[in-house]
Structure formats: structure tokens, C-alpha cells
Amino acid sequence: MRDLDRQIFRLAVPAFGALVAPALFMVTDAVIVGTLGPDQLAALGVGATVIGTVIALSIFFAYGTTASVGRLVGAKKLDEAFRETQNSVIFAAGIGVVVAIILAASANQLAAALSPSEVTKPAATYLLICAAAIPFLLVSMALTGALRGFQDTKATLIVSVLAVIVNTGVCAVAVLVLNWGIAGSAWSTVVAEVVAVIGYALAINRHVKGNWHKWRPQLAQIKNFAQASSLLLWRTAMLRVVLIAVLLVASALGTTSLAAYHATFAIYGVAVFALDALAIAAQALVAKSLGSRQAAEATLINQRITLWSVLLGLALALILLATATPLSELFTDAPIVQSQTAAALLVVAALMPPASLAFAWDGVLIGASDFKFLAWVQTGVLIAFLPVLWWVYQTQQDVSWLWVTIGWWLVLRCISLWLRLNFLTKTNWRLLV
Fold it and tell me: What are the CB-based long-range contacts (under 8 Å, 24+) for 95-99?
């Protein structure tokens, strides 16, 4: 048991650092670009929103690769695991090129739609240049997933931190020394993503001594990966629809509610990084155990991940309960926004236990490659969630009630995921082994 717990935290702790590192990209860029004035900073915000959406929707590259590579590692088929990594890289690069072309072609239109006129030009410049980073970004996700499948989250942390350092250095030189303006920030992102791809590829080489120059595209395997990825993409899209719908309702409730929602969501986002780290450990360990046909071990991993996630969720809840008021004062001096934020954070604290279960069980089922179930269940949960959100909109409740609706969504996810896992463990995972 202790050995399994050590494995969980050996994967989860570096994964947490790797999850936090990308957030530092935008923080450092914002600090540097902020010296150029409010218009440039606003343009960076627009660009970050678009790129962030691409990242969120493309997370399936990491999740899908973790599951497929992890199973092959569990089966001790390292050469096949490397070829699966190559297939996912080829697929990610192809999709990345398509997305990059679309982003470059629509940069002006996106900037105009998302920003006032004085911000449109620098925002379009940022998006046009960042389009070049998209293929490398998606390949980085695929390689990150492969490293998790190889049970190596330490390498993902090291490369992520290296990419942040490179991004910060290049951005500072390009913006503050070369006077490239917001274009310098965009080019620093491109350079950092290229460095990340190289770093991840070298890290994978440590596990398999693969020859990256010997490409072996396998169309049948790429097709299978694309089918699995489409299910994960659908699952992710359903999750994003929930968050976008809540954001739209927060906006409709007025500026005060919108400001309070943004503040609480920022804090919630940091908290769930820790929960997501445990979910990543679940993905890697379950995939490996089922690949080695150790169904009993997969069940034990599910139990330990569940236990540690609940304990973490309770700890986060206590922290939020104790710090709700001081945290609400970090974002604004407006008393009404502070009071709504503090009240909403109490609800967020209450959501941490169901959130911990939802993240943990989602990670277990991703590791088990149960993608079709996850796609369908997220769709069903969304349908059950929307009427409650509509009621909040119609009755003009405050921002705390928005978090109550998110809590309802999390509870629905927990129930459906628990039912699935209960069935799988009772049947010894035979549907997925």
C-alpha cells in the first residue's frame, strides 16, 4: 500500500508543478507587456483567451496518449509505446498545422470581435505570430501525455520550467531591449514551445532510445488514435460549454457578479490544479496496470486515488473557509464585489469534496480508455445542468448561486462516474482489459 502511495505522489507532485508552469507563461508576459501600456496589455489578454481556448480543447492529445502509451508500457512493449508516441505526434502536428492556418487567417476577425478598436491591431499581431506556435504546442501535449504514460512526470516538470525560463528571457529581451512590442511576447511563446518539444523528445529518448528521424507513420493506428481523440475532444467540449454558459450568465447578472465570478473562478482554478495532478497520476497508473492485465491493481489504484483526492479536497475546503475574506480582498477594493466574492468562496469551499471525486474518477476512467462513456455521460450531465443554470438566470440570483449550479454539475458527474466505476470493478474491468 505504501509503495503504491509513493508511486501516486511520485507522479502527482511533479505533475502539479508542470500544470502550474504554463500559468506562469502569461503572468510573466503580462508583467513585461504591461510596461508598454494598457492597450498592449489588453491585446495580450485577448490573445491569451484565444490561445487558452485552443489549449483547453486540445488537452485530449495528452490524455489520449497517456492512456495508449501507458497500456503498452504496462505490457512491456516499449518499442510499440514509442511508435504510438510517434503516431500521436504525427496526428498532433497535422491538426496543429490546420489550426495554425485557421488562426492566422482569422486573426484580424477574432481580434476585432473580442476587443475594442484601439486594441484590435496589436491583438491581431499577437494572434498571427502565435499561430506559428500552435503545431509545437499540440505536439508538446502529445509528448507530455507520452511521458506520463512512461510514468515520468518529473521530466514534464523540468521541461515545463525550462520553457517558462526561456519564454521569460526571450520576452524580456524582445520587448524591453529590442522594442518589438507585443510581437516580442508572441515570438517568445513560439521559441519556448519549440524548446519544449525538443526537451520532451529528448526525455522520451531516455526511456526507449528511439530514433526520432525514422518516422514510421501507421495509418491504422493513427486512425484509431483519431477516433479515440474525437471522443475525448467531445468530452472536453462538453466541459467547456458548462464553464462558458456560467460565464455568460455571470455577465448577464451585471458587472458586480461578473467581477466576483472571475475572482472566485481564479481561486477555484488554482485549487483544482492539485486535484488534476492526482487525476494525472490515476491516468498513468491505471493505464499501466490494465496494460499489464492487473485488474486487481487497477481497482486498488482507484481506491487509493479516491482516498487521497477526498483528503486533499477536504484540506482545500478548510483552507478556503479560513481564507475566504482575505482572498476576496486581493482582487478589488469595491466592498460589494468583496462581499459577493467572500460569500461565493464559501460555496466553492463546499464544492471541493465533490470536485475531488469528479477529478479522481475522471482520471481513472481516462486511464482505462473509457472514452466513449465519458463523452456520452458529459453530454447527459450538461443536459441536466442547463435547466438549473437557466433558473438562476431567470431569477437573477447572485454569484453564489452560480457556484451552486456548478456544484449540481459536479454532483451529477460524481454519481455517473461512481456508477460506472462500481460496475467496472465488480466485473473485474473485463470490458476494458
Answer: 95/58, 95/138, 96/134, 96/135, 96/136, 96/137, 96/138, 96/139, 97/135, 99/54, 99/134, 99/135, 99/138
